[in-house]
Each structure stands twice: as structure tokens, then as C-alpha cells.
Design goal:
Layout lengths: L22 H6 L1 H22 L2 E5 L8 H11 L3 E3 L2 H11 L3 H9 L2 E2 L13 H20 L3 E5 L11 H15 L5 E5 L10 H11 L4 E6 H6 L15 E5 L27 H10 L5 E4 L4 H4 L3 H17 L4
Parallel strand pairs: 1-2, 1-8, 2-3, 4-5, 5-6, 6-7, 7-8
Helix pairs in contact: 2-12, 3-5, 3-12, 7-8
Length: 324
């Protein structure tokens, strides 16, 4: 593509600045990006067909829009795989009737490869009581959308000891039992700042120890590369253990010690060896969605079709780069 759009995750508290182009210019490019995405569809489809990998959009990346606007924007850009926000889907159904969210996705040709998300399930905290209640309707909504997966990030921030992990196992087993009747896998997402599960090794150990058919392992490549995990840790993963992948880059700046979720970058705009990582994941049998999850407020407030077009533009080269 001759025209390039570069969106740099900002580091301001407000999330309103963009370094390479300003937000007004970015939004003005919506029509051209949508057209470019349409022109790229044949090559993208071929890449997905040959490897099973497919570009996917995560609900948080377009969080400032309602469910219909997001789904229509993603579909207009050429997206086929979605990781819908379950709260947004519920709001849509409250206004349009039960089953309307799934019907909208079906009409647009979108498939829910995963769904997002439920926090506070692993640790015994005051917040866990409400988290369990929320999980009950979320697995039902995920099932309704056709999503067989739901992300459960670990964001525990208190101080813990080795003895606490016995309760973590029990808590996740309880969550798995709630998800089981709905045929939804709860995917433990390690996050780099969690005080309980922040790396590949611990996440694998927890999932394997719980040993529940509805508790699974996943990878977020930002948390993988910006956190304490090592590339060699991928060798610990058994074929078939990876159930989902969040695909985002790690920027060179700010320093990791002060970096936040909003600093996640579009693939290719950071320093993570994404091609090397993806090649290894494919060797381990992964052949599903690569879901773009960004938290920068400028991105989240931008036309979903524009952001989805950028997702296709930045992720597809990695899919095409996997050795056949």
C-alpha cells in the first residue's frame, strides 16, 4: 500500500494526542482506509485460508461506540473475526431484544472467535462476589453470540504468598463449573503487572493444576514481551494449549517500568519480534484469531472502520510471513 497511516499510542493521561498525525486528520482518512481495506481483501482472505490465522478485532479497541456501530464499522473494513464486548452486546439486546446481537453479527458476516471479559475471578477479594454474578450472565451471552471463549485476565494487585495459590485453583475451578453448561472456555490471561499470574510459566502451571475442561491458556503478546516471560518459555507450551492470542506490539518508549496499557502499539510500530513469536505459535499448532487489543483513547474514539482497516494493514503481513 502506498498510503500509510501511523497511529502512535500516546502517553498523556487524557489520551488525546497523536504524534504522527492528529486525530482530525486520522478521522478524515476513514473513507480512504475503508476503500483500501476492501482492495486488500483477496490477499487477506488467501492468507487466512492457508494458515487458519485471521485478523480479529477486540471490543476494547472501539469501546467508545455502541455495539451496532462497532460491528458495522468492523464489517465495512473487511473484518470477519470479532471479540465482542459482552457488556455492549447486553446493552444492544436490552434495546433491541434477546438474540439481536447475534443476528446483527450474522447479518454482517462476523464470527465471535472470543469474547471479553471478566476480571476478579482468580483471587479471593470483595470484588469476586460480584464477578461471579457477572460471569453467570456473561457466559450465557457469549454462548448466545456463538463465542466458545471468554477472556479472564489476572489483574491481582495485593500481596500474595505461595499458600494463596490453592485458593486460586479452587476459585478458577468454580468459575469453570459456571461456564461448563454453556460450552464456553474461560481463558486465563496473564498480565505483566499481576501479583498472581504475570507470565507464561505461572499461567501454564495454574491452568494445568486446575485441570478443568473449561479453564484454558491464552497469550497476550504485549504482556508476553513487556512482562517477565522469556521467548524460550514458549517451548513449555504443548501443541493445542493456546486457545486465543491478543496481537499488539510493545513500544520502545516509555520505559517498561512506567508503561501502561494505553501504551500498547499497533503491530510493527514497536520492538517485539512479532513474526518470530507468531511463527513459533504456529509451530505449536495455533491457527485461529489474532485479536487487536489497544487501550489508547484516541484509537478507541476513532471510527471503528478506520481502526479495523489499520488492523488489517498491520497484522496481515505477519500472517503472510508465516512459513508455509
Amino acid at each position: 500500500m502506498d498510503q500509510q497511516i501511523h497511529i502512535k499510542e500516546n502517553t498523556s493521561n487524557e489520551g488525546n494526542d497523536m504524534s504522527d498525525i492528529n486525530r482530525r486528520d486520522f478521522i478524515a482518512m476513514s473513507a480512504s482506509v475503508t476503500a483500501m481495506a476492501s482492495a486488500m481483501k483477496p490477499a487477506m482472505t488467501k492468507a487466512a485460508d492457508s494458515s487458519g490465522l485471521i485478523v480479529c478485532m477486540h471490543g476494547i479497541t472501539s469501546s467508545e461506540f455502541d455495539f451496532r456501530t462497532v460491528m458495522e464499522g468492523w464489517a465495512r473494513a473487511g473484518i470477519k473475526a470479532a471479540e465482542p464486548d459482552l457488556v455492549k452486546a447486553r446493552q444492544h439486546e436490552a434495546a433491541n431484544g434477546k438474540g439481536s446481537a447475534r443476528r446483527l453479527m450474522d447479518d454482517l458476516g462476523l464470527v465471535a472467535y472470543s469474547s471479553t471479559n471478566q476480571l476478579n475471578l482468580e483471587a479471593t477479594t470483595d470484588a469476586r462476589v460480584q464477578a461471579i454474578e457477572d460471569l453467570k450472565w456473561k457466559v450465557e451471552m457469549a454462548e448466545s453470540l456463538g463465542a466458545s471463549r471468554l477472556v479472564i485476565p489476572s489483574a491481582a494487585s495485593a500481596q500474595y504468598t505461595l499458600a494463596d495459590y490453592q485458593q486460586v485453583y479452587a476459585n478458577l475451578h468454580e468459575a469453570g463449573e459456571i461456564a461448563k453448561p454453556h460450552n464456553v472456555a474461560l481463558m486465563v490471561e496473564f498480565t505483566r503487572n499481576s501479583r498472581l499470574i504475570n507470565n507464561v510459566r505461572t499461567s501454564l502451571d495454574v491452568v494445568r493444576t486446575v485441570n478443568h475442561p473449561n479453564i484454558k491458556f491464552m497469550l497476550d503478546l504485549y504482556h508476553f514481551w513487556a512482562g517477565p516471560s522469556k521467548f524460550e518459555d514458549l517451548d513449555l507450551i504443548q501443541p493445542g494449549e493456546i486457545h486465543h492470542v491478543h496481537f499488539a506490539d510493545t513500544p520502545r518508549q516509555p520505559p517498561l517500568e512506567v508503561a501502561e496499557q494505553k501504551d500498547r502499539a499497533f503491530p510493527g510500530e514497536g520492538i517485539a519480534p512479532l513474526q518470530k513469536i507468531l511463527n513459533r505459535l504456529v509451530e505449536l499448532g495455533y491457527s485461529r484469531a489474532l485479536s487487536l487489543e489497544l487501550f489508547d483513547m484516541t484509537v478507541r474514539r476513532t471510527d471503528p472502520a478506520v481502526v479495523a482497516g489499520r488492523a488489517l494493514e498491520t497484522i496481515t503481513p505477519y500472517i503472510n510471513g508465516v512459513p508455509i
